[in-house]
C-alpha cells in the first residue's frame, strides 16, 4: 500500500480516497450496464430498436433539466447529503427497469434514471471541489483514470451477459447496477459533511444561468466533448464501412484509448494548475485532435495493414488530445465557478456536454461518415478552432462579476 501511494497509483488514506472509491464502484456498475443496455432493452424487454432509441433520446433530454436546480440545492443544503439522495433514487429507478413491459413505461423509467443521474453529477461537483486538496488537477485526473479503469473491468461481465442472452442474466445485470448505486451511497456516507459556502450579498439565486461568460466556456466545452463520440460512435462505423481493417479491430482501437487514459491521465494533468495553463492545454488538444483525425480519415482505401497502422496512430494521437482536453476542462469547470455556487455551475457545465452528446451522433454521421475523409479533416478543424479561441474566451470569463465569492 505505501508503495502504491508513493508512486501515485493510490491516493493517501482519507476523504479523497473514499470519494475515489465511491466513483470507482459507481462507474463499475454503470459501465457494465451502459455496454449492454441496448441489448437488454431489445432482447429482454422486447422493444424494437426504434422505440429504444426514441426513449433513450427523450431520457437524455429530460436529464439535462435536472443539473442546475439540483446543483443549487446541493450548494445550499450540503453536497454530500444531496449526492446520497440522488444515488438512492438511481438505485430504485434502475431496479424498476425489471418491471418494464411497454414503451411508455420504459420511457418514463429511463427519464427518471437520467434525471437522477444528471442530478447526481451536479451534486458531486461541490464534493470534488471541496475535497480536492492542494493538488486539485491531479485529484480530478485520478478520478477520471479510476472511472476509465472501472469501465474497462465492466466490459468483461457485460460481454458475458450478452453472450448468455437469458432473462436471468439480464436481471442480474440490472440488479447488480442498482446495488452499485446503493453501495456508492454507503461509501459516500463515510465522507465528512461539507458546510455550504455562504453566498455573497447581492448574489442572484440562479447566477449560473445569468453568467453568459461561463456559458460561453460551457458551449466551447460542449463542442470539444464530441471527441468522445468520435471514438465510440464514428470510428467503429468508419472501420467497418469505409476501411479494409478487420472488424475485430473495432474493439482493439477503443481498448487502446481506454488503456492510455487509465495510465496517462494523472501525468497529463501535471502543470495544469490554473486557468491560463488549462486554456493552453485546450489549444494543444485542438492541434492534437486535428492530427489524430487526419490519420484516421486517411485510412480509407488503404490495404488492411495500412488502415490498421494509421487508425492505431490516429487513436493514440487523438487520445493524447483527449487527455489534455479533460485536464483543462476539469480545471476551468471549477476555477471559473464561484465557490458558493459550485453545484449550480456544475449543472450548467454538464448541460453543455449533455446537449452536444444528444446531437453528436447525427452531426458526426454527416461529417465523418457521409463526407468521408474531407469530413474527418473538417471535424479536426472544428476542434482546432475551438482550441484556438479558448485562451481568449477564458481571459474574458475571468472578468465576470459572478466570480466574486
Residue share in β-strands? under 5%
Please give the count of helices: 16
The chain-level structural class is mainly alpha
Write the element-wise H/E pattern from the N-terminal end onward: HHHHHHHHHHHHHHHH
Q: Which CATH-level-2 architecture of the largest domain?
A: Up-down Bundle
* CATH topology type of the largest domain: Growth Hormone, Chain: A
The total number of structural domains is 2
Overall mean pLDDT: 81
CATH class of the largest domain: Mainly Alpha
| Rg calc | 21 Å
Helix content: over 70%
Give your account of this protein's structure.
It is a single chain. This protein is an all-alpha fold and 405 residues long. Helix content is 80%, strand content 0%. The protein has 16 helices and no strands. The chain has helices at residues 2-6, 15-44, 49-64, 67-77, 79-96, 103-131, 136-164, 167-188, 207-210, 212-224, 226-242, 249-268, 275-297, 304-335, 342-370, 373-397. Helix 2 runs parallel beside helix 7 (136-164), helix 6 packs across helix 15 and helix 11 (226-242) packs antiparallel against helix 12. The model is unreliable at 1-8 (pLDDT under 50).
Ordered list of secondary-structure elements with their pairings:
Blueprint: H1 2-6, H2 15-44, H3 49-64, H4 67-77, H5 79-96, H6 103-131, H7 136-164, H8 167-188, H9 207-210, H10 212-224, H11 226-242, H12 249-268, H13 275-297, H14 304-335, H15 342-370, H16 373-397
Helix pairs in contact: 2-7, 2-8, 3-6, 3-15, 4-5, 4-6, 4-15, 5-6, 5-8, 6-15, 7-12, 7-14, 10-14, 10-15, 10-16, 11-12, 11-15, 12-14, 13-14, 13-16, 15-16
Amino acid at each position: 500500500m505505501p508503495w502504491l501511494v508513493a508512486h501515485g497509483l493510490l491516493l493517501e488514506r482519507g476523504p479523497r480516497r473514499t470519494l475515489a472509491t465511491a466513483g470507482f464502484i459507481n462507474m463499475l456498475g454503470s459501465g457494465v450496464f451502459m455496454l449492454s443496455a441496448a441489448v437488454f432493452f431489445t432482447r429482454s424487454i422486447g422493444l424494437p430498436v426504434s422505440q429504444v432509441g426514441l426513449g433513450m433520446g427523450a431520457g437524455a433530454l429530460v436529464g439535462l433539466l435536472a443539473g442546475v436546480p439540483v446543483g443549487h440545492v446541493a450548494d445550499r443544503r450540503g453536497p454530500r447529503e444531496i449526492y446520497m439522495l440522488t444515488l438512492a433514487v438511481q438505485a430504485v429507478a434502475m431496479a424498476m427497469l425489471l418491471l418494464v413491459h411497454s414503451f411508455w413505461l420504459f420511457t418514463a423509467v429511463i427519464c427518471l434514471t437520467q434525471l437522477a443521474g444528471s442530478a447526481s453529477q451536479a451534486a458531486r461537483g461541490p464534493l470534488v471541489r471541496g475535497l480536492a486538496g492542494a493538488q486539485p488537477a491531479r485529484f480530478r485526473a485520478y478520478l477520471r483514470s479510476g472511472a476509465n479503469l472501472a469501465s474497462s473491468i465492466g466490459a468483461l461481465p457485460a460481454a458475458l451477459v450478452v453472450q448468455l442472452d437469458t432473462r436471468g442474466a439480464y436481471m442480474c445485470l440490472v440488479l447488480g447496477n442498482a446495488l452499485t448505486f446503493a453501495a456508492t451511497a454507503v461509501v459516500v456516507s463515510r465522507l465528512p459533511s461539507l458546510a455550504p459556502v455562504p453566498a455573497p450579498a447581492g448574489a442572484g439565486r440562479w447566477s449560473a444561468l445569468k453568467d453568459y461568460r461561463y456559458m460561453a466556456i460551457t458551449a466551447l466545452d460542449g463542442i470539444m466533448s464530441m471527441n468522445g463520440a468520435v471514438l465510440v460512435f464514428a470510428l467503429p462505423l468508419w472501420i467497418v464501412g469505409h476501411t479494409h481493417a478487420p472488424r475485430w479491430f473495432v474493439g482493439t482501437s477503443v481498448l487502446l484509448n481506454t488503456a492510455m487514459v487509465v495510465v496517462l491521465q494523472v501525468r497529463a494533468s501535471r502543470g495544469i494548475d490554473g486557468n491560463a495553463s488549462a486554456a493552453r492545454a485546450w489549444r494543444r488538444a485542438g492541434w492534437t485532435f486535428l492530427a489524430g483525425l487526419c490519420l484516421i480519415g486517411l485510412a480509407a482505401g488503404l490495404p488492411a495493414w495500412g488502415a490498421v497502422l494509421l487508425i492505431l496512430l490516429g487513436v493514440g494521437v487523438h487520445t493524447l488530445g483527449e487527455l489534455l482536453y479533460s485536464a483543462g476542462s476539469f480545471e476551468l469547470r471549477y476555477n471559473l465557478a464561484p465557490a458558493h455556487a459550485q453545484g449550480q455551475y456544475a449543472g450548467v457545465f454538464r448541460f453543455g456536454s449533455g446537449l452536444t452528446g444528444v446531437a453528436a451522433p447525427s452531426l458526426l454521421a454527416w461529417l465523418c461518415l457521409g463526407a468521408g475523409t474531407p469530413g474527418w479533416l473538417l471535424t479536426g478543424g472544428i476542434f482546432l478552432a475551438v482550441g484556438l479561441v479558448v485562451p481568449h474566451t477564458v481571459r474574458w470569463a475571468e472578468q465576470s462579476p459572478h466570480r466574486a465569492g
